[in-house]
Structure formats: C-alpha cells, structure tokens
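> call design_seq(struct)
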C-alpha cells in the first residue's frame, strides 16, 4: 500500500478561491471506496493501491477541468513502502510516541 498526497491548483479561473475545485475532487474520490481519503488544509492524502490511487488522481484532474479551470497544476508526493504495512493512523502514532 502507498500513501500519496495530492494538491491541485486550478489556473485560468477568474477567482482566487479554490474550494469549489477541491470539493469537486473530493466528490470524485468518493467513487474509490478501496482508497482511504483524508482531506487536509493543504491537500488530500490517499492511502491504498498505488495504481488505483493514480487512477483517482487522474479523475481529480479531470474534475478540476470540468469545473472551469483552463489549466491544472498538481503536486503529488508518494510514500511507497514495501517492507511492512502501516495505516495512516499508525504512521501518525509512531511520530506522536516519539514526542
């Protein structure tokens, strides 16, 4: 399982707010029940099969275009660990235990 963080930045809109584009992306992600999705203030964390996650990210890109953006700039961070399984909550707990 992989952890990906996606940030989409719509370009070519007439407004500075991006929440409608992010909301559209989040709605699309609901179509991927096998992925764990967590919205945060700066992006969306996606946990699950990496191929399915890339499929979901591509669908997010399209939703931003469908909502009126002329261009989409996306930042994707990937943590693809294969030596052991760890949930999103376990990853956070590991850091908190060390604080």
């Amino acid at each position: 399982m992989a952890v990906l963080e996606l940030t989409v930045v719509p370009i070519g809109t007439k407004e500075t707010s991006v929440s409608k584009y992010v909301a559209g992306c989040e709605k699309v992600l609901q179509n991927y029940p096998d992925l764990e999705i967590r919205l945060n203030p700066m992006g969306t964390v996606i946990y699950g099969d990496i191929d399915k996650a890339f499929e979901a990210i591509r669908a997010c890109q399209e939703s931003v275009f469908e909502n009126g953006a002329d261009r989409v700039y996306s930042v994707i961070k990937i943590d693809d660990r294969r030596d052991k399984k760890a949930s999103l909550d376990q990853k956070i707990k590991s850091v908190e235990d060390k604080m």
